[in-house]
Design goal:
The chain is about 70% helix and about 0% strand. By secondary structure, the protein is mainly α. The relative contact order is 0.15.
């Protein structure tokens, strides 16, 4: 079976789960230590999954446009990533400046506004804690596109990308459990996803991969438990690599049927990612005024679910293909048929 000829429906579900992981991180302030521990693990796993999926699909795009130039691929990634990122950066700069002025949110935006601050906010995603992901992903993508065009022979093999990506991801994680090396780690996850993509799309390995995916699906929950157990140990980076690989391998198969719910979660995941921190801060301000004490576990879970649902509802207004007033994606005559969005997810 030609793996390039089908849509990776499993990734729709995986994106929906990964965004739930990421939402947990930005709700850890002022909550119980147990929730903070869960949130750090969830956020790191969610970021790894998003980056690896991006690398997986980037390899599909590169292989499909093998005759294209580096600049055409870079332009494609820029059109996909940069316009929403710049809009949300401007939104957070304005919204958090207002919140700092009105409610005393400790960001210091009004005191620190300067050309240097604005440049850092745009180039490094410093406008808010979670925006670093997009410029880092864009830089990693264009770097790997350029590297892929230069490498030849065994250096360009799928196994080279898989091993090097895992090694770089481990190197970025071994220095500690915080996000000080997130750029290195993200580069490794994207590279790992590219290597896995080129392995699972090999027709000669279809039978082996079918059995391997079944084993990976069974091993996901034990790997998740191992990652949680190893969170504060030296084994955590390796456990995280194994967990991410198992997720991508299990969800990359053709067995997942198409689902409107999964497609909805996938399509809205980026807007949920952009908006959830603002929703969290707004709800936390309202909650602090009525409940100044630190939140217990039940209250933390309630806030987490509320933030996700509000962000999801907002994303539905912006992105949902299910809404009747949203214009359908533009169709193009191209090999493989379908819309531009559907071909991008193949």
């Amino acid at each position: 079976m030609n793996m390039d000829a089908h849509r990776y429906n499993g990734f729709d579900w995986l994106r929906g789960v990964a965004i739930l992981f990421i939402v947990t991180l930005h709700l850890s302030v002022g909550t119980t230590p147990s929730w903070s521990r869960i949130s750090i693990f969830g956020a790191q796993s969610g970021v790894a999954v998003f980056a690896a999926i991006s690398g997986f699909l980037l390899a599909v795009l590169i292989d499909k446009s093998s005759g294209g130039s580096v600049w055409s691929l870079v332009a494609h990634r820029a059109r996909r990533l940069l316009p929403p990122y710049l809009k949300w950066t401007a939104f957070y700069l304005a919204a958090l400046s207002f919140m700092d002025w009105r409610f005393g949110v400790p960001h210091g935006y009004l005191a620190n506004f300067s050309p240097r601050f604005l440049a850092t906010a745009v180039l490094r995603g410093a406008a808010e804690i979670h925006l670093w992901f997009v410029p880092s992903l864009f830089i990693a993508s264009i770097a790997l596109v350029a590297v892929d065009k230069v490498l030849r022979g065994p250096l360009r093999s799928a196994w080279t990308y898989l091993v090097c990506g895992a090694a770089i991801g481990l190197a970025g994680s071994c220095a500690g459990t915080n996000f000080s090396n997130h750029d290195v780690r993200l580069f490794g996850w994207v590279m790992l996803g590219m290597g896995l993509s080129r392995i699972v799309r090999r027709p000669d390995l279809s039978d082996v991969l079918r059995r391997t995916r079944r084993c990976a699906a069974v091993a996901i929950l034990p790997a998740l438990a191992a990652s949680v157990w190893a969170k504060d140990t030296a084994w955590w980076p390796a456990a995280d690599v194994v967990f991410t690989l198992l997720l991508l391998l299990a969800f990359s198969g053709p067995a997942f049927p198409g689902s409107r719910v999964a497609a909805f979660l996938s399509r809205t995941s980026l807007t949920v990612y952009y908006s959830h921190v603002f929703v969290s801060r707004a709800l936390s301000i309202a909650l602090r005024s009525a409940h100044p004490e630190p939140l217990d576990m039940v209250e933390s879970l309630s806030l987490w679910m509320g933030v996700w649902l509000v962000a999801l509802a907002f994303a539905a207004l912006c992105d949902s293909p299910l809404l009747p007033w949203r214009k359908p994606a533009r169709k193009e005559n191209a090999p493989g048929g379908g819309t531009e969005e559907s071909r991008e997810a193949k």
